[in-house]
Amino acid sequence: MAAARLRGEGEMPGLTFSGYREFVLEDENALEIDKMDFHNATELNGERQPKGGPCAFPAVALAWLAGSREPLKMMRAGAAAVDAVGDVEEHEEKRHSPHPPLLERTAGPFKVAFLVFASACAWYSGYLVAELIPDVHLSSTAYHIQSIGQRPVLKAPAPKRQKCDHWTPCPPNTYAYRLLSGGGRDKYAKICFEDQLLMGEKTGNVARGINIAIVNYETGKVAAARYFDMYEGDNSGPMTKFIQSAPEKSLLFMVTHDDGSTRLTPEAKDAIEALGSKEVRSLRFRSSWVFLAAKGFELPAGIPREKINHSDTSKNRYSGWPAEIQIEGCVPRAPS
Q1: Which of 146, 176, 225, 303 lies most in the core, judged by the most C-beta atoms within 10 Å?
Q2: Rounded Cα gap, residues 59 and 41, in angstroms
C-alpha cells in the first residue's frame, strides 16, 4: 500500500479547488481515488512542485501501478490528454443541458428587438429625407444629372411684345398705330391704335367695303368706327357724310376688305383726297388699301400714311384676291 498527498489550488471551467487531497494505492491491482483534476499543483507528498499544468490522480495511480519512481513526470505527460477529455465532457454537458446560460437565453429576443428598432429608425430617416427633398419629376432629375459637366447654353430672352405688335417700341409721347387690309374672303381687316383693336374680326365691326375709325387726336379716345359696303347698296353718300362730320384735330384710319371701289362715287373720292390720299382714285376691284389721315392738323413727314396693292390674277396670293398689306408707325401726341 502507498499513499500520496497532493496540495494545490486552481480553477477550471465548472470546478474550483484549493487545499489537500489524499489518495491511497492499496496494491498493484486496486485503485481507490477521486476522479478530480487540479491546476497549478504545488506539492506532492510534501515536496514542492513547479506550477504549470493540471495534475490528474488517475495519471499518478497509473504511474505507481507501472512501478515508476517518478509519478509526477508521468502525471505531467498525461495532463494534456486529461485536459482535452475534460473540455469535451464539459462542452457536451453544456450542449445537452436543458437550461442554457442566461446570456444565451436572452440573446435571441435582444437581436429581434434590435432588428425592429433599426428598421423603425431606417423607415423614419427615409420619411424625413422624402419630406425635406422637394418634389421633382424623375425625368427632370435625370436631365439635370445628364447635364452635369455640359457647357451651358445661352438662350436669348423672348422679345417683349410691343403695342399693336410693333417690332420696336414707339418713342415716348407718341401714339402707336397699325393698319392691316383684308386678305381673301376670311382674313378680315384690322385697325389697332395704342394697342387697342378698334376694328377687326374679334370686335365684330368689320365687313366688306371701306372700314373707317375716327380718333380724337388730343385725348387718344375713339370717337366713332363704321364700315361701308362698296359692292352692294348706295353707301358712298353716308360714308362721305361720316368723313366730313369728323371733328377738327381728329385721326382717321381707313382700310379695305374685299372690294372697296365698285360703288365708290367721285364725291366720296374727293372727300378722301381732301384728307391727303394719293391712291384713292386708283382703287380697283378688290384692291387692298390702307390710309391714315389727319383733320385739322398736319402729320410729320416720314410717317407711313398710305399703301395699295392691286388685284392681279397672275400675282394674287389668294384665289381672286391680292395679299393683304399693312402700315404701322408712331404719331406724336398733341402738345399739352
Answers
A1: 176
A2: 13
